[in-house]
Amino acid sequence: MEQLINVGFGNYVNRHKIIAVISPDSAPAKRMIQNGKDQGTVIDATQGRRTRAVIAMENGHIVLSAVLPETIAGRCTQLQS
After folding, report:
1. Cα(29)–Cα(6) distance, rounded to whole angstroms?
2. Is this prediction's pTM over 0.85?
3. Per DSSP, what are the bridge partners of residue 43?
């Protein structure tokens, strides 16, 4: 069964497809976001708010979220229990 994680503002991703949840502040994360925008693989789930987490997915897509990485990680571990 697919378990969905709320990444903010009514947007959800499949927990089993997440590779990493990282902060967008580092230069490599910024490059990853820019490359994804150039390739059309970025999904912006921030609803116009500041990006606080970058979620790398199995299929190469990158999800931008306004929720902190710690919060997303906590939601993932809650579903494992």
Report:
1. 21
2. yes
3. 63
